[in-house]
Amino acid sequence: MGVRLEIYGGTDRIGNREAVERINLDAGDILAVVGPTGSGKSELLADIEQLADGDTPSRRIVRLLVNGSAPDACLRASSVVATLSQRTNFIMDITVGGFVDMHAASLHKESGAWADEVVLLANTLCGEPMRENSLLQRLSGGQTRALMIADIALMSDAPVVLIDEVENAGIDKHQALSVLCGYGKITVMATHDPILMLSSPARLVMSEGGMRSLVAVSPEEEKCRATLSALDAKLLYARELLRKGGTIQEEYFA
Ligand SMILES: Nc1ncnc2c1ncn2[C@@H]1O[C@H](COP(=O)(O)OP(=O)(O)OP(=O)(O)O)[C@@H](O)[C@H]1O
Ligand SMILES: [Mg+2]
Predict the structure, then answer these.
(1) Is the CB of 38 under 6 A from ligand 1?
(2) Are residues 190 and 208 in the same domain?
(3) Considering the domain boundaries, does residue 167 fall inside one?
(4) What is the reported pLDDT for 78?
(5) What is the CA 95 to chain-centroid distance, rounded?
(6) pLDDT in tens, 155-190
(7) Minimal CA–CA distance to 86: which of 38, 134, 135?
(8) Range of the structural domain that residue 203 is part of
(9) Phi-psi category of 207—alpha, beta or left, where left has phi over 0 and alpha has psi -120 to 50?
């Protein structure tokens, strides 16, 4: 399936035209969306999620083309875009297994077949395991995020994946990303993490609600990424040790 996402600039929060007028993303592309808190990253993802048509506060237009033409109405946003949202509160009084079953049914997939696999994958991402009969509302923030990631990774056939701050819940961000960015998908990822920013060939810089510039990763930055990754590996190692009750030695970090 040849999928293309076209984003046409609208206005920033103040009402000025956005500097970036158009972005095209094709199957397999990944775009990092960066900017300070409140700069409009989630708003942009929301515009993509609902395939905005000049009808949102930003007045952006987002088009998704499948094999060169617009997907028909029943294949629109809900099944072409999968979103790992920044908000992770469930209001449903239901078990994890019940939730996965319901989601499977809404995607016209066989119910009863998915809960085992989704819970198994989710538990590889979070520290303390959940069970199929765990209540959704009793999951921790990290467990909820892990469940959402596993749910998208295993059940969604959507060609576009939106990720809002995967690094936020104490789960392994690299593992989560590799689980989410299936081959051939278009991935748009809002992030505050410098390594994730540099893991995409280009990053979209946001400020005051507007798309300000599109910056390509330079060869110099590729080298910086390697250095930052080595530092990050040490930080993650320390985090794992400390949160499991262990102690760390200075020489490891010298
Ligand atoms: N182009 C725009 N036009 C009008 N309002 C906007 C625009 N972009 C963002 N906003 C509004 O600005 C507020 C902050 O934006 P948003 O939540 O997207 O920031 P963010 O970059 O995701 O911040 P954080 O890093 O804290 O998650 C929201 O209320 C959002 O609706
Ligand atoms: Mg946000």
Answers:
(1) yes
(2) yes
(3) yes
(4) 56
(5) 24
(6) 888 899 999 988 877 788 888 888 888 778 899 999
(7) 38
(8) 3-91+157-217
(9) beta
Closest ligand 1 atom to residue 165 Cα is 27
All residue ranges of the chain with pLDDT < 70 are 1, 72-78
Predicted confidence (pLDDT) per residue in 90-120, tens digit:
777 899 999 999 888 888 887 778 999 999 9
For residue 138, being part of any structural domain is answered with: no
Nearest residue (CA) to ligand 1, atom 18: 40
Q: What ligand 1 atom has the least distance to the C-alpha of 11?
A: 1
* 151 within ligand 1 shell (Cβ under 6 A): no
Tokens of 51: 């395939």
Residues 253 and 180 in one domain: no
Pair (54, 24) in one structural domain: yes
